[in-house]
Design goal:
It is a single chain. The chain is of the alpha+beta class. α14 runs antiparallel to α15. The radius of gyration is 24 Å and the shape is globular.
């Protein structure tokens, strides 16, 4: 193997600071689950095995830390940093003479895990330690990881990847590549070859996708979280080999996933396994945050804006939809057409609590893993590009520091309310004039992008989703990027439709009646019942218009949406409930005698009860 140059490189954690609504989102997260979970949930509390205790010692502690640590450094929150450092210090002090580290036992509620040896939970902690090193410059981390990888090199052929680790081997490959770039240790490429060969053949699965129908039995290759992680594998293999077949496999695989299992929010279904396109099938929150991380890596490797488009669609829709506005409860599974969240049997493999809002509905993996979503979006929003350039991955409000050109220091102040508004202003701050290239992602949904630099119009030509602006930049230069957001009606199964404007999907919010199901000191469980009618379709030729409102602290709240779409619809008499969920939108909606009504649609992520896929009503 010979390491290939990737299109972009991730900036070290701390190079990007969130601003605007994104910083507010992180503060809400810190005030809710992420900042206080260890105080209220024993699985990541003081007795966790990764803190030297006798409790859970498998994935839950590392999962939690994988979101807590970047959140702490993004917010520069000393209390959260201290919390994260307890885990990091214990891990660093636990290394044995042979290079292994971590708890001396495996204790987990997951019955399928090999208690003698398992590699998966270490892969998560490797990602944590990489972020810690980037944020702090801790000189202990790199030699610690070299020793650990020598241990892995000596053990892994006799104890190969299996189960979760086999399907998620790319997570270890990411650390091996990161470490090789820092050390040039040749044994790391040998180890990468071994790990790659032991990892599930995601390239083959994605290139010739075999899972065309809803899966209803256990299979590692169709588990939705494994798929969400596995999609990155061809990208990591491309970085190791340069094989162009890997990009083709990724694109074919994503297209197949969306054809056979895709849903309006940008994810594929999986309520535990790939579950088809029905809008009442669920998708697991773990899959949402892991697919975001996969897209962040694929953008880095290939420099293709299409992966940024997917990242934003999932981040701005599927992620906030599954978490309460105050970050004190979450779902395991969300539904595009979600008309009630309650204890009830549904047509999925997860248990009857899977769509509750609570502390650990169905199973606790999402309780531990959900925290990485927003922090990693922030830390991957911009990347370094070859030749001393910088590249936009997502236009969230933030401040970016990087070295550019021949070594000048730039700070980009990204002032925007995107995706709730169409304009992005970027102020360039430089310590000296410098020539470098800005790579601006042009979303595929935007047909009329425009750019001004200091008031002068700049022509944009997009190649693979990126337009480049190369010039000698001056301190104080200002870019104004406008991304007009046309309202789009997307046709789905049986002529049902979803509504999009830019990267946001819009849904009809259903009145929410939250009823307490289980009370705790904090982080209660809730059922949510509908308080308004939901059986509405959209007129096929009805007009849409967007209405803007001020940006609140929590923009993903249907009660205070910063933008709404006004649409026309009718009640649909023959739309039934089946199995405690909304049935598929009727192919032939019965609207006889029903008046036209004006419907207010809001961003999907803010409506916890909603219709996101509508029957289409055709006039005779």
């Amino acid at each position: 193997m010979a390491l290939q140059r990737t299109a972009f490189e991730q900036l070290p954690l701390g190079s990007i600071k969130p601003a605007g609504w994104l910083r507010d989102q992180l503060l809400i997260q810190a005030d809710g689950f992420t900042g206080h979970l260890d105080e209220h949930w024993a699985d990541v509390g003081p007795d966790n095995g990764w803190l030297g205790g006798t409790g859970d010692s498998w994935e839950r502690g590392p999962y939690y830390l994988d979101g807590l640590l970047p959140l702490a450094y993004l917010l520069e929150d000393d209390k959260l940093i201290a919390k994260a450092n307890r885990w990091v210090e214990w891990a660093l002090s636990s290394q044995r003479e042979d290079g292994g580290f971590g708890p001396a036992f495996i204790h987990t509620v997951n019955q399928e895990v090999n208690r003698r040896i398992d590699w998966w939970h270490y892969m998560i902690m490797l990602k944590v330690l990489m972020q810690h090193e980037e944020a702090t410059g801790d000189a202990r981390v790199v030699p610690f990881l070299v020793r650990y990888m020598r241990y892995v090199h000596g053990m892994i052929e006799a104890n190969p990847l299996e189960g979760w680790a086999q399907t998620r081997g790319a997570e270890m490959l990411l650390c091996i590549v990161w470490l090789y770039k820092k050390t040039n240790e040749s044994f790391l490429l040998e180890l990468a070859d071994i790990v790659a060969k032991q990892t599930t053949d995601w390239t083959g699965i994605l290139h010739d996708f075999p899972f065309w129908r809803k899966v209803e039995h256990w299979d590692w290759r169709t588990h939705v979280v494994n798929v969400a992680m596995g999609v990155k594998t061809p990208g990591v293999l491309y970085e190791l080999t340069g094989d162009p077949h890997q990009l083709e496999a990724v694109k074919r695989g994503i297209a197949s996933l969306m054809t056979y299992h895709g849903q309006a929010h940008g994810m594929f279904s999986g309520d535990e396994w790939l579950s088809g396109t029905h809008p009442s099938q669920g998708v697991e929150l773990c899959a949402v945050v892991e697919y975001m991380y996969t897209m962040e890596q694929l953008v880095r490797v290939f420099g293709d804006g299409a992966f940024g488009d997917i990242l934003e669609k999932v981040a701005f829709n599927a992620l906030p939809a599954a978490i309460s506005t105050d970050w004190t409860s979450h779902q395991y599974d969300q539904q595009v057409n979600q008309i009630v969240c309650n204890v009830a049997k549904r047509d999925w493999s997860n248990n009857e609590e899977a769509n509750l809002f609570g502390l650990e509905p169905n199973f606790g993996c999402c309780t531990a893993n959900m925290h990485q979503g927003w922090p990693k979006l922030a830390s991957h929003a911009w990347m370094a590009a070859s030749g001393g350039g910088v590249a936009a991955v997502s236009y969230v409000p933030c401040s970016v520091k990087a070295a550019v050109g021949s070594g000048a220091n730039v700070q980009l102040e990204v002032d925007t309310a995107y995706p709730f508004r169409e304009t992005v202003e970027i102020l360039v701050k430089l310590d000296r004039s410098e020539a470098f290239t800005l790579h601006l992602r042009i979303p595929a949904w935007c047909g009329r992008p425009s750019l001004q630099v200091n008031g002068e119009k700049i022509e944009l030509t997009s190649v693979n989703g990126y337009a480049t602006v190369e010039r000698t930049w001056q301190d104080g230069d200002v870019l104004l990027l406008t991304l007009p957001m046309d309202i789009k009606r997307s046709v789905r199964g049986s002529y049902a439709v979803s509504v999009e404007r830019g990267p946001l999907v819009y849904a009809l919010p259903i009145g929410e009646n939250w009823q307490l199901l289980k009370q705790r000191a904090r982080f209660h469980d809730w059922e949510v019942y509908p308080a308004t009618a939901w059986k509405y379709g959209l007129l096929e030729n009805g007009e849409f218009r967007a209405v803007e409102a001020p940006i609140p602290q929590q923009p993903f709240d249907a009660r205070h949406s910063p933008v709404k779409i006004i649409a026309q619809g009718q009640l649909v008499r023959n739309w039934r409930m089946v199995g405690n969920s909304a049935d598929a939108p009727p192919l032939v909606p019965d609207t006889e005698g029903q008046p036209d009504v004006e419907l207010e649609l809001v961003p999907y992520g803010g409506a916890k009860l909603r219709i996101g896929e509508f029957p289409s009503i055709r006039r005779n």
